Protein 1
Amino acid sequence: MSAIPAKQTVGVMGSAVDEHEELAREVGELLASLRVNLLTGGGRGVMTSVSRAYTAAVRERGICIGIIPCLSRSERGTPKHGYPNEFVELPIHTHLPFSGELGRDDLSRNHINVLSCDAIIALPGGKGTATEVSLAVEYGKPIIAYAQDVCLVRSLPAEVTRASDLREVREFLLMHLRQT
């Protein structure tokens, strides 16, 4: 099996509410087997479930990174409630409070989430996920949307590749990441 150097980071973006447990588990285990770092927004929903799967998997290399938003513009030294989730191994605290509908704003950590990744997997999510996906497209980052029911990711930009099978996600990553 080919492995990707751990200095490469794959971001997983998705719902901050729904865990989409089966999809997230598959993706977390895949990323651990590829020996890459996992980057999420460090919160609940998909961020928790993919981090749980990644950290529970046997892995030789890689770390679970969470980019943590602050509570508000006036409380920049305090993390947003529920952040980081218990599976984040390296929390990176920011002074950036915005997300969701404000996810494209310069005060959103979404820019860091996207720019820090070598490739991105989008799982089903809401407006915050959609802004991260649109930023990935804008910044030219390799991105794939994954859901067994592709209707769950139909609101994402049309130029984003869709996958309904984990093999497609794995092939996408192997094509876009440097191999050892």
Protein 2
Amino acid sequence: MLNYGKKLLSIILPLMVLWSASAFAQDRAVSGKVTEASSGNGLPGVSVAVKGTTIGTATDAEGNYQVRVPDANATLVFRYLGYTTREAVVGNQSTINVSLQTDARQLDEVVVTALGIERSERSLGYATQQVQGDNLTFTKEQNVLARLPVK
């Protein structure tokens, strides 16, 4: 009977150690709100990513987000076009609210070439053509009869 107890203990003890190690290694949820610094309004579509991983999410219409982080040493990176990028170390926080400031640098015109390489218009050695937003929705009537006035 004593050998049976030792065998059972030798099986249960390693399982308990593995279970406790996995319980401490579980990721946890971090949530918060991303706002604009000047107005305090929530920013929709802000990219919230865990630095050095492929884990991430985007804020909802009110600027709220929720992401699961692997450990307390994780750093969240907040990116939004036209605003400065911010980083925040998670630590023992479960709520991280961030306010982003507008980026002082202006967005220059970008030319996308046929190969998908982006360059400024001045650096190209050939002519470029601009397409205005109104021209994207403008269509000419293909049927001549449809262009005639109806009486």
Protein 3
Amino acid sequence: MQALQVEIERLSASDACIGCGRCVAVCPNEALEIDGLESLGAATQSAAEMVVRLECSRVPDDEDRPGTVRVPCLGAVSTGWLVQLQAHAGDRPVHVIDRGWCATCPAGGQARH
């Protein structure tokens, strides 16, 4: 999104930031954080379903299914975060649900992350 502003003492997000978290996934030092990617244990423990479903926060609530863990953007999910999610899910499989909406999303504007 080109929303990060680098200053001498800090890194901040400009008004162009839409809160998708894609910068978190690509940060080589894991120095960035965003709300919605931190509570893995609670999200997976509350779901008594056989499958843990990972979905974008843009999916309407009425289309939510049991066992869903919502993230700001599927593009915000790093490999490390996905491994942690699987560890919290235990024996249950984790399904990453892409409904094909990424192409029209302001966070990516492309068919795939």
Protein 4
Amino acid sequence: MTDPPAPKRTLPPLTALRAAAAVARTGGFASAARALGVTPSAVSHQVRRLEQWLGAPVFERDGQATRPTPMGADLCRAVTDAFENVEAALAAAQARCAPSTLRIAALPLFANAWLIPRLGGFEQAYPKLSLDIDTGAHIADLRAREADVAIRTALPADPTLETRKLLDIRGTPVCAPPLASTLRRPRDLASATVIELSVGAKGWPDWLAAAGAADVTPARVLRFDTLLGALGAAVAGRGVMLAPTPLIWAAPEARALAAPFPDKKIDAGSYVLALRRDAGAASQAFAAWVAAEMRADLPRLRGLDRS
């Protein structure tokens, strides 16, 4: 006796799934339409098709706000992951067929502490792809093709770029343990040397204000043009550095540091990966690989965060 044939599995239109995922990701029909390059009415039509196929609403509309239902949130999350996996697989297949050089612009801390230790896995997957890595502090102009992929903490808004958030960061003071033992409260920084960067130096005033010490002026400032230079000075006991956690703890030398005020942090933005929307297969494959590696590594990074 033979087994009965398995029932046929059907799927809703992929355009409807993509539209719903875009609404969930961007927070609205208009923003989803801009992301997909279609009209809001087209997005609305596709979402209705999906809801009709399911027989249940995917989103709740409350005035101007659009929120996924619990079922819709789960579905859109799974659909987004599935589309990303398909895109990554296609990009990987293309990249293997077209040997080339990929130019990556990454901030020094990210490149040295996180990216370079993992590059072996990417190189194994793409043995014919050469990598040109720039760890300068300048912002590479992707539109002018100064790089294929950029990893920064801030990027100007640009509709020609595709961006992916990799990691939220918080700023908190770190220093050598002997110095940390002398800092009982934020006001003690009035007699300390603070280490800052020649770009983004407003971090310390923001942190002091958030810590209730806006009127405090540190005794001295030691300024560097790279985060790695600032980190080296902090490890050497030269002053107190406002460090991006949890990524700072991925740098082996940083593990000798202490956080004197572990409960006082400020929002320091995010590490973001960007590439042109018309980027080639190698860029897409690298972007997908970095995003997947970061998702897998987030629990470890958070576990390293002693601040």
